[in-house]
Structures are given as structure tokens and as C-alpha cells.
Design a protein that fits this description.
15 helices; eight-stranded mixed sheet; hydrolase activity; AB_hydrolase_fold; Alpha/beta fold hydrolase; AB_hydrolase_sf; hydrolase
């Protein structure tokens, strides 16, 4: 085999893979259509999934997904149960799923502004925010920027503080301005087709949703070349935004529940969850022994309990002092049961 033949063969294979990548992106988008509806905002269209609209008298919950996924990630194990007695709003963060991506949408505050506008157009003016991983960082920015809207916070495996380690190699390569495009159009395209379903199933091993998560959540959307780039951009540029944020956390006064796992190797508990709990004035930290990063799938009941605790704390705060005193007194006495 001559060197020229080898070079030409390699080039032809590379061109074929790149063309396959373009085809696959269009195919994935076509066979996995939007699960919700679109709302126009100043930052472009935001894709929203809504559940339980008009039900119950509890405050709505806005659920914010993490990296390399979309709104369906928060829908699978949580939204259906919450929707029994409240409205649940699940936006695709800008650039993810089917939401538009603006030139500055790597900034968390820009993402928050777009989603807030979309949520308000759904009629929700005050709500509880529930965010997982990167979505938890988004929720914190939201609470700092619009405290009048946010009644409470539930943060699952939250990334909250600058970390002493870097980001994974494939994220750095995916965001590289020189060769990132080729990496996304070659390696990521092939991984999405042949490796991602098994990789996701391994990451969720032991979770009820593991066998069907990849298809149900439409994770393949995250491996489209543009969306992979935006995910990598979000992660690589999050650190610089967390540096000034960590000094502002004591300003968040709303009831907050943090759910974190001791075996989370993505967002390390002592660096993020514990430090945040120490800084927030009204925060409860629920540590799951042996829990990993995808706690909303491995321990959904603990996440739902955290939302219930925020509801209870809000209800207590809304009661008058006299009502609280009467409830405390009556709780001392045993309840009579009717007899026939």
C-alpha cells in the first residue's frame, strides 16, 4: 500500500463519516420530534413541556435539566407524580432539545432570562425551581436574578462552586475552536450511533429507567454536532460564572432543599452540596449514602420528598401566628375517631 493510497483512503473515509454525521443529525431530529410546544421570547423560541396544567392549588414547579440531555430527563421519573396536584413546567434550556440558541446563550443568566419569559407566558408568576446538576446552577442564578419569582429551591446533585479539577477530555475537544468541528462530526457522530445507548445504560445501571431512558429521553438529540458543541461550551464556561456567584449565595433567603450523593463522581459533595448548604440561610441538605449523580432517576422518591418539604415550609411561613399556635395546641391532643 503506497502512502498516497493510504492518505486518499483515509480522507475518503473521513469525508464519508462527516456526511454521515449531517445525515444522522437530520434523521435524529425528524424521528424524535418535539414533545411539547414553543414559546417566543426575546432570545428566540423556547421549547416547553407542561404537565398537570390547572390542577391543584400548590405552586407550580419549574424543572431544569442538566447537561447532555433535555426537558424529558426531568419528566421521566418526577413530573408525572408532581402533576397530580400542580402545574409542572419543563423547559429545554437554550440550545438543548428544541430551544433556540443565541450567540450569548452560554451565559447562564441569558438562558434564565429566556426561560423565565417563557414560563411567565404560561401564567406562572411564582413557583418552586427544581434543577439537577447544571440545571441546579441555573436555578441558583434564577433565584439571584429574580427573587420575586422564586418561592423555593430543590437542587439535585448541584454544581455550585468552582472546582479544582478540569472538565473531561471529550468536552474540551468538543469545544476546541480549531479542531472541535471535525471531532464533533467524526468521533461524536460515530459514538452517538454505536456507543451512546450502551454508555447511558451503564451510567444508569440500577435505575428503573435504565432500559428505556435513551429512547424515552431522546438523548440522541444531545449528540447532534451543534448541540454537543453547545453542551461543551456551557460546561467549559460555567467555571468563570461560578466564581463571582459563590459570594452571593447568602442573599438567597427562600426555603432550599439540596439532595446529593456520597458517590457522585461528577459533582463532588464536599466541593458543591456541603459548601452551598453552609452558605444558604434556609437550607436543608439531604445526603444519600451511596448515591451517584443521577439521583432523580436512582432515588426519585428522595427528590419528591424534598419538593414536599419545600411545600410544607412555604405553608408554615404563610400561616398566621395564631393559626400556627392553634395547630400546635390541637396536635397535642389525640384525634377522636367516629364510632357507629
Amino acid at each position: 500500500m503506497t502512502p498516497t493510497f493510504f492518505v486518499l483512503t483515509t480522507f475518503a473515509l473521513l469525508v464519508a463519516v462527516v456526511l454521515f454525521s449531517f445525515w444522522q443529525d437530520r434523521h435524529v431530529t425528524r424521528v424524535r420530534p418535539p414533545a411539547g410546544h414553543f414559546v417566543d421570547t426575546a432570545e428566540g423560541k423556547v421549547h416547553l413541556i407542561t404537565r398537570g396544567e390547572g390542577k391543584g392549588d400548590k405552586l407550580p414547579v419549574v424543572m431544569l435539566h442538566g447537561s447532555f440531555t433535555n426537558a424529558l430527563d426531568m419528566d421521566i421519573d418526577l413530573a408525572g407524580k408532581l402533576a397530580k396536584d400542580r402545574q409542572v413546567i419543563l423547559p429545554d434550556r437554550p440550545g438543548h432539545g428544541f430551544s433556540d440558541r443565541g450567540p450569548d446563550s452560554w451565559r447562564v443568566d441569558v438562558q434564565v432570562a429566556a426561560m423565565r419569559e417563557a414560563v411567565k407566558k404560561q401564567g406562572a408568576d411564582r413557583y418552586v425551581l427544581c434543577g439537577q446538576s447544571y440545571g441546579a446552577a441555573t436555578a441558583l442564578v434564577w433565584a439571584l436574578a429574580y427573587p420575586e419569582d422564586v418561592a423555593g429551591l430543590v437542587l439535585v446533585a448541584p454544581v455550585t462552586h468552582p472546582w479544582p479539577y478540569g472538565v473531561r477530555w471529550y468536552i474540551r475537544m468538543g469545544n476546541n475552536p480549531r479542531y472541535g468541528w471535525l471531532f464533533r462530526r467524526s468521533f461524536i457522530a460515530l459514538y452517538s450511533r454505536y456507543g451512546a445507548p450502551r454508555g447511558v445504560a451503564r451510567a444508569l445501571r440500577g435505575c428503573k429507567a435504565a432500559p428505556y431512558y435513551y429512547e424515552r429521553s431522546r438523548t440522541a438529540l444531545s449528540f447532534r454536532a451543534a448541540e454537543f458543541h453547545w453542551n461543551a461550551q456551557d460546561i467549559c464556561r460555567l467555571y468563570e460564572q461560578l466564581v463571582p456567584m459563590e459570594g452571593l449565595y447568602p442573599k438567597i433567603k427562600v426555603p432550599t432543599e439540596v439532595v446529593a450523593g456520597t458517590h457522585d463522581l461528577t459533582v463532588i459533595l464536599p466541593i458543591h452540596g456541603r459548601r452551598l448548604a453552609d452558605q444558604l440561610p434556609d437550607c436543608n441538605l439531604d445526603i444519600i449514602d451511596g448515591g451517584g449523580h443521577a439521583l432523580h432517576h436512582s432515588h426519585p422518591e428522595r427528590c419528591l420528598d424534598a419538593i414536599d418539604r419545600v411545600d410544607q415550609r412555604l405553608e408554615m411561613a404563610a400561616r398566621s401566628p395564631l393559626e400556627s399556635a392553634l395547630r400546635a395546641i390541637t396536635a397535642v391532643f389525640p384525634q377522636r375517631t367516629a364510632t357507629k
